[in-house]
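Hey, sorry to bother you again with one of my protein questions. A protein chain has come my way and I'm curious about its shape. I'm sending you its amino acid sequence along with the backbone structure tokens. I owe you a coffee for this, so here goes:
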Amino acid sequence: MDALSLARAQFAVTTIYHFLFVPLTIGLSLLVAILESIYVKTNDEKYKQMAKFWGKLFLINFSMGVVTGIVQEFQFGMNWSGYSRFVGDIFGAPLAIEALVAFFLESTFLGVWIFGWDKLSKKVHLLSMWLAAIGTSLSAFWILLANSFMQNPVGYTLNNGRAEMESFTALLTNGHLWWQFPHVLTAGLTTAGFFIVGVSAINLLKKSNDAFFTKSFKFGSVAALIGVVLVLFVGHGQMVNVKEEQPMKAAAAEALWETADPAPFTIIASIDEEGRKNNSAIELPKMLSFLYYLKFEGEVPGINDLQAQMEAEYGPGDYIPPVKVLFWSFRIMVGAGCLMLLLGVIAVVLMKKKKALGDYKKLMVIFSLSLGLPFLANTFGWIMAEMGRYPWLVYGLQKLEEGVSVINTPSTVLISLVGFIVIYTALAIAEIFLMVRHGIKNPVTDTEIAENDKEASLWT
């Protein structure tokens, strides 16, 4: 493999691994803040214990996200110096704001939250958690603002071979950002909801503090259902936006080779990328046009026509992203989302049953396994978003080969890639060990809740 392929592989490894933690961090910060808000309002110590328990798992996940996120930014200079020179004037601003404002906001007030339980008043302590949660969402906002410029460049001017910022307001109002950011936020809520449901289900199967984990299961179920409904709605809107901004990505995600009016939605297909066709497919007639236009008619451009248009605009070259990867990534993401919607409805229905949740053993096993569904959807959704931009680093402005560091040799990139994989594997083992230890092996007990009841006088 050449240095470009290895550099892409390295960034893919670090990005995918980092993005495993991001949605859970965003979602859990919000849900922990809500749990503590309920405690402050009701003075029910069980909600305080829930905020502490799920907050501990949130902190473990947060720390892993920080470690893996820092590594990503170093790669811009090491492996993608051409890209850094080209968009540094634009890309650097949101990353600097993220680090200097959002990250310090969340990390500072998380410290206050961790050490201030018995030292601050209820409301001040609660405020620290809300500020940390706001900081977490703001971090995502600034990172996605930078990423949205790569997907849909706006507010720039080309000068001496560099993209220079012309309008910060244009960056802030980028249409791609205002679909991508809500999509990530709602994905975070969904991930956190199913995380709480999954961990609660495992403990209910073990008969570990049924009352506590029944309450947690119900709370997580509501959050999960709200999250998945919102993420499906926002995700659909984002795909409509992608069709306008990056029609090639949208066509590749549907394996739509020829322009069609009306266009069918392909459920599964045998894709021949070399021949630029589908050998066979199961389709829903007119459904893709309906999804885009809310009517059973409307032209959807196909890959072959878009390739010809892009050659005419940008010159000879291959502008077709890996169709198989995008097609199946999109279906895995949507399939996982639909399955989560079904499970969310079932979970909420179970809340109304008088029978103990732990007695639904088969369902608890399913809900335990459902913990992995949002991570699956998040990962393949991110793969589709990033690989769908191929062959561009910055859509329409800079190609991949123009952004890679020319000084790097394949051997140097390979050594660092192997090093990252080894380190990240060790971190994954540590993450799983800590999550299992604090969330399953040693779950909260009734004794701990009773002890916290005795501390209530400190808060009044």
The longest strand covers residues 265-272.
